[in-house]
Amino acid sequence: MRLIQLTDAHLHADIHARSRSGIPWRQFTAVIEAVAAEQPDIVVVSGDISQDESEGSYARAVEALNELRCPWFWLPGNHDDVELMADAHPLLNEVDIDIGRIVLLNTQVPGKPHGKLGSDRLEALANTLAADERPVIVVMHHPPVDVGAAWMDAIGLEDREAFWEVVGTFAHVNMVLFGHAHQAFATTYPTAAGTVEVYGCPATSDQFMPGAPTFSVDQASRPGYRVIDIQAGEWLTWIERV
């Protein structure tokens, strides 16, 4: 099975609108074209689909993503309007796949750049994980670990310790994918139940400078996506740039 992660498109209703170092719509469609050539079985978009939080921006995203010949799913980031997203394409909490499940978490705190699950979402996550022992990939927008850039770490998942306390109860959580950081990232997180692989993904739009103490755009890097090939419970993952 081939899973591809996209993230942080930051689209506008105006396809000619510029970001800090590019044109998000042009970058997004170039990435979609490259992803289509990968022949994925499933695509997950981990938040910040929109920059202007407009109905038009989500319509543009759906238009492009529907060109993929596979199912695709998304979840909100801090810049997204959840109601407009849900009107444009369903927002699901979990998806069945050949090797198990993908659990999609909403970490948005409306009007704030940081993320938080809170007690209700954490309880729901625990119940979801307890209900089925098939392997799980968790996808979320905000990083549940430090990525090494002080400004980004300050606006990651606020209640990350509580998240890991829940996840650490279940050995069948194999992988966590996140967005928000606009950069490639990989680490492992040891829990009481075993080690979880944790991966960040380049944005389809601007890239952020790894390790920067304050906000900084990486002008030398390109948009990209993460590929995850899964066979017989094992996976190989890498980043592609466009």
Explain what this protein looks like in three dimensions.
With 242 residues, this protein is of the alpha/beta class. The chain is 24% helix and 26% strand. The protein has helices at 24-37, 55-65, 82-88, 118-130, 150-153, 160-167; strands at 2-6, 42-45, 72-74, 94-97, 100-104, 136-140, 173-178, 185-191, 194-200, 224-231, 234-241. The relative contact order is 0.18. The chain has one domain: Purple Acid Phosphatase, chain A, domain 2, CATH 3.60.21. The chain starts with a strand and ends with a strand. Strand 2, helix 2 and strand 3 (72-74) form a beta-alpha-beta unit.
The fold-level CATH name is Purple Acid Phosphatase, chain A, domain 2
Following the backbone from N to C, one meets helices and strands in this order, namely EHEHEHEEHEHHEEEEE
Shape: globular
Instruction: Look at the structure and give the mean pLDDT.
Output: 96
Q: Estimate what percentage of residues fall within beta strands.
A: 25-35%
Q: Please state how the strands of the largest beta sheet are arranged side by side.
A: 4-5-6-7-9-8
What descriptors fit this protein?
6-stranded mixed beta sheet, globular, Purple Acid Phosphatase, chain A, domain 2, alpha/beta, about 240 residues, 5-stranded mixed beta sheet, about 25% helix
TL;DR of this structure?
By secondary structure, the protein is an alpha/beta fold.
Please describe the topology of this protein.
Elements: E1 2-6, H1 24-37, E2 42-45, H2 55-65, E3 72-74, H3 82-88, E4 94-97, E5 100-104, H4 118-130, E6 136-140, H5 150-153, H6 160-167, E7 173-178, E8 185-191, E9 194-200, E10 224-231, E11 234-241
Parallel strand pairs: 1-2, 2-3, 5-6, 6-7, 7-9
Antiparallel strand pairs: 1-10, 4-5, 8-9, 10-11
